[in-house]
Amino acid sequence: MTNSTNKSVKPKLRPRNLTHWTAVGFGSGLAPKAPGTFGSLAAMPLVMLMLQLPLWGYLALTILACLIGNYLCGQTADDFGYHDHPAIVWDEFAGMMVTFIAIPLTWQNLVLGFVLFRIFDILKPWPIRWLDRHVHGGFGIMVDDLLAGAMAWLGLMLLQGYLH
Length: 164
Hints:
Elements lengths: L17 H6 L11 H16 L4 H26 L9 H10 L7 H17 L4 H7 L2 H23 L5
Helix pairs in contact: 2-4, 3-4, 3-7, 4-7, 5-7, 6-7
């Protein structure tokens, strides 16, 4: 598998392959610049719909997205011959879902959660960076974004005074 430092490798995307299409965020990860940001933006309508569900429903779908994501991201990376290709953004979808667990649906929360998630995903503070470099396969692709989502969630909770 190709090292993740060469971002110019073109993915061997098969448009009719549902696994590929989902892993690239229904096309959002194919943006030529900032695919992770576009993937996170593309996740927002799904998150907004999910926030209409009771908490147990939101959690169930988030867990399902995370479990399925291990397969989607791992299989697509294998097919592309490139670990964690920038076009693979399902991990951003799952990370955004984690960010908004039990968060009230307001435009302010949506903007703040998006910004916090992108900051943690881009800067990768410890232990996110360590996990990103040392954990491989589908879980390795997913885990850093899930932790970035958890840190963004914690930031949202702290800023809203839910945690003291």
